[in-house]
Amino acid sequence: MSIDVQRIRAEFPVLRQQVHGRDLVYLDNAATTQKPRAVIDALRRYYEHDNANVHRGVHALSERATAAYEGARASLRALLNARSVREIVFVRGATEGINLVASSWGGTHVGAGDEVLITGMEHHSNIVPWQMLCERVGATLKVLPIDQRGALCLDQLDALLSERTKLVGVVHLSNALGTINPVSEIIRRAHAVGAKVLIDGAQAVAHMPIDVQALDCDFYVTSAHKMYGPTGIGVLYAKEALLEAMPPYQGGGDMIRMVTFERTEYNELPYKFEAGTPNIAGAIGFAAAVAWLSAQGVERLAAHEQQLLDYATERAAACDGLRLIGTASRRATVLSFVLDGVHPHDLGTILDREGIAIRAGHHCAMPVMQHFGVPATARASFAAYNTREEVDALFAALAKARALFA
Ligand code: C6P
What we know:
With about 400 residues, the protein is an alpha/beta fold. The protein has helices at about 5-10, 35-50, 60-80, 95-110, 130-135, 155-160, 185-190, 210-215, 240-245, 280-295, 300-315, 345-355, 365-370, 390-405, and strands at about 20, 20-25, 25, 90, 115-120, 140-145, 165-170, 195-200, 220-225, 235-240, 255-260, 265, 320-325, 335-340, 355, 360, 375-380. Helices cover about 40% and strands about 15% of the residues.
């Protein structure tokens, strides 16, 4: 079951470098992961051999580009176990996926007096679009709180759900806390009152197998760049019947079947939601990332990352003045913390001088910071290519920072 980390590391060219005279220790994977050679090569190959616009041309290059682009859709369908490629919409990323749903589905299904329920640990991208929708239509945004460990207060869920609840939005794996949420249970309880459920899987897909049919979620979004793929591409999964009934999000080329000045007939799914020339290279790189992930085995990678997180959590417990932010029983990949007497931003800068890349800040989850009474945290986040030695390097650098500020 264990993985050969050195073999995996060898596939990531960016890791072979020094930063400030030290071997790079990249622990900012929740912000974006590095890309394996297979993804970089797929992008280069496409631009060197097949570059053309899709769905339009009758020439060989356009046919090849279209086949590769649609092949990428099929890869995503298989990865998420969607019923059909008609349920796979390419978007810029998780953020655009949520905005699409809030605007198109929300704009037609949420009205005055209705409620949208999110949780206290959402990323801003799963807060702000719903806030905007609620303001626009006169609906109310409700929040399922989190406890002191950074787990959802599930005992309050049923009291917050009612026939007024039109949508529940939940993050699968919290980027600020590492908490893995019991989304199946939430989906079941939300469906019982007739609400639809959107799962923000931006952090989850690289770290656990996802089966949208088994989950029975209505919408699932994720970003390629957090799962070893390129930036600027992501996916929205939605049940076909919902997409069928939703109005287009944007108008333009490719999303139409017929246009006159009087009226437009929209294209079939999923093209109705992909106006304009899509990110063709991005989709092809995304498919290469999916192939890479599947070849490694997401579960095997996750088991390795869990060992690193457990080891880091153990070391954190022994680290003077360190307070973990997020200690829920089910966590993955993220170690979020504050260190007595050292602002997270200073910590980030000191660690950078040691060649260690972490993220410091509010992680686009300001309400989480407010809940824990901190302005920011330092966050180390693990991926398949990280090692135990890198965890040691992190804690050695933390000790140095502590001494410096003592
Ligand atoms: N979190 C982080 O460092 P985009 O930017 O669209 O690819 O993903 C947005 C997003 C949505 N949901 C969650 C749970 C996320 O973690 C993110 C992105 C990055 O934590 C950048 S803020």
